[in-house]
Specification:
With 379 residues, the protein is mainly α. 56% of the residues lie in helices and 3% in strands. Bound molecules: s-citryldethia Coenzyme A.
C-alpha cells in the first residue's frame, strides 16, 4: 500500500478553489476580490467591503443603500436571545458567549434548507447585523447594565461603539473602527474559515457554520492572539526590558504572540495599516507607553527572528488601537469575529457551490487485531 505523505497543519495543501481573497506572502499583498486591502481600509467601509466579499463585485449606490438598510433593519436581537445572554456567567469569555448566541440563533431562525438562495441571504444579513448587538449585550449585562438598543441612524461601526458605550464616536474614531473591521473581514483559508467550510460541507445551517468558526477563532494561535499581545506587553512592562524578554522567550522556544504567520514571511500588510491607524487614534487619545514598547519589540524581533521570516501579524497592533479607544481586552477577539463573519459567510456561499463533504484521510499509527481482555482478567 502506498504511504500518503502527512503535511502537519495542512501546510501548502489546497483544500478548495476560492475567488474570495488572495495573499502574496512574500510581498505583503492582500486583496479582497482583487482589490488591495489598504485601498479598502482607506476608501471603502465595512458595509461595502462585506458586500464585495459576499457578492464578488463592488455594489452600485442603490445596491449598497439596500444592503445597508437590510443590515440596519436586522440589528435588534429577540428578547429571548437577550434572556439567554443574561443566563451566561459574567466571568465567561465574550467569545464563548458569542459562540453560544450564534448557535442559539439557529433555533430562532430556521435555515435548514441551504439550497434556498433567498433564505441564505436572510441568514447572511442577520448574522452580520446581529453579531455586534450580541457582543455588546453580553458586555453590558456582565457589568450589571441593561443592553443598549441599536440605533438605525448610525453605520455599522458607529452603532457598535454606541451599543458599548452609549455615546457616539467622534468621526475619527468611527473611521478607525470601520477600518479595523475592513482589515479583519477576510483572510483566505485561515483556521476559522476552514473550520466553517468543513461544517458548511455537511450542509449544516449557517448559524452552526458561523458558531464553529467563532469557536475556532478563540484560540491564542489564531484570533485569540490579539488579547494575549496586551498581556505580553503588560508582562514586559518597560521598554528597557524588551530585549532581555525577547531573548529569553526565544531561548525557551516560547511562542511570541502577534508574531509569525503561515503565509506571510514579511510584515503582515494589515499590521502596517493598523500602525498607521494607531497614530491617528493617538491624536485624540494620546500615545500610550505600550505603543513605544511594541515598536521596540518589533525592532528587536526583526533582528532576532526576521531571518526566519517572523514579523508582526494582524494581531500585534490591533489590541493597542482598541485599548486606546477604551475597549476592554477580552472584546478584541469578538471584534475580530464581528468583522470576519463577512469573510466566513462569503466562504460559506462559495462552499455551497459544487459542494462535496470534507472527508480527508488519516495515517493510522495504532494497533490492529488487538485482543479484547475481559475486565476481570486485566492486570
Ligand atoms: C491570525 O492564518 C491566518 O490567516 C490567520 C490570521 C487571519 O487573519 O485569519 O492572519 C489571523 O491567526 C494571526 C496569527 C495570530 N497568532 C499568533 O500571533 C500566535 C503566535 N504565532 C505563532 O504561533 C505562529 O507564527 C502561527 C500560529 C501564526 C503560525 O504557525 P505555523 O505556520 O504553524 O508556524 P510554526 O509554529 O510551525 O513555526 C515555524 C517556526 C518554528 O521554529 P522552528 O521549530 O522551525 O525552529 O517559526 C517559529 C516556530 O517556533 N515561530 C515562532 C513564532 N512563530 C513561528 N517563534 C516564536 N514566536 C512566534 N510567534
Amino acid at each position: 500500500m502506498s504511504q500518503i505523505e502527512l503535511r502537519p497543519g495542512l501546510a501548502d495543501v489546497p483544500v478548495a478553489e476560492s475567488a474570495v481573497s488572495f495573499i502574496d506572502g512574500k510581498n505583503a499583498r492582500l486583496e479582497y476580490r482583487g482589490i488591495a486591502v489598504e485601498t479598502l481600509a482607506t476608501q471603502s467601509c465595512f458595509e461595502e467591503t462585506a458586500y464585495l466579499l459576499l457578492k464578488g463585485n463592488l455594489p452600485t449606490q442603490k445596491e449598497l443603500a439596500d444592503f445597508d438598510d437590510q443590515l440596519r433593519h436586522h440589528r435588534r436581537i429577540k428578547f429571548r436571545l437577550t434572556d439567554l445572554i443574561k443566563c451566561l456567567p459574567e466571568t465567561g469569555h465574550p467569545m464563548y458567549a458569542l459562540q453560544a448566541t450564534v448557535a442559539a440563533m439557529g433555533m430562532f431562525y430556521p435555515a435548514r434548507d441551504v439550497s434556498n438562495a433567498k433564505c441564505n441571504w436572510e441568514s447572511v444579513v442577520r448574522l452580520i447585523a446581529k453579531m455586534p448587538t450580541a457582543v455588546a449585550a453580553f458586555h453590558r449585562i456582565r457589568h450589571g447594565d441593561e443592553p443598549i438598543k441599536p440605533r438605525d441612524d448610525l453605520d455599522h461601526a458607529g452603532n457598535f461603539y454606541w451599543m458599548l458605550f452609549e455615546k457616539e464616536p467622534s468621526p475619527a474614531i468611527r473611521k478607525v473602527i470601520d477600518a479595523c473591521l475592513v482589515l479583519h473581514a477576510e483572510h483566505t483559508m485561515n483556521a476559522s474559515t476552514f473550520s466553517g467550510r468543513v461544517t458548511a460541507s455537511t450542509l449544516a445551517n449557517p448559524y452552526t457554520v458561523i458558531s464553529a468558526a467563532v469557536g475556532t477563532l478563540t484560540g491564542p494561535l489564531h484570533g485569540g492572539a490579539n488579547e494575549e499581545v496586551l498581556t505580553m506587553l503588560d508582562e514586559i512592562g518597560d521598554i528597557k526590558n524588551v530585549r532581555v524578554w525577547c531573548e529569553d522567550a526565544i531561548a525557551n522556544k516560547k511562542k511570541i504572540m502577534g508574531f509569525g504567520h503561515r503565509v506571510y514571511k514579511v510584515k503582515d500588510p494589515r499590521a502596517t495599516v493598523l500602525q498607521e491607524l494607531a497614530d491617528r487614534v493617538f491624536i485624540d487619545t494620546g500615545k500610550p507607553a505600550k505603543y513605544d514598547l511594541a515598536v521596540e519589540m518589533e525592532k528587536v524581533m526583526a533582528e532576532k527572528l526576521g531571518p526566519k521570516g517572523i514579523y508582526p501579524n494582524v494581531d500585534f497592533y490591533s489590541g493597542i488601537v482598541y485599548e486606546a479607544l477604551g475597549i476592554q481586552p477580552d472584546l478584541f477577539t469578538p471584534i475580530f469575529a464581528i468583522a470576519r463573519v463577512a469573510g466566513w459567510l462569503a466562504h460559506w456561499l462559495e462552499q455551497l457551490q459544487g459542494n462535496r463533504i470534507y472527508r480527508p484521510e488519516q495515517i493510522y499509527v495504532g494497533k490492529n487485531n488487538a485482543p479484547y481482555v475481559p475486565l476481570a482478567k486485566r492486570a
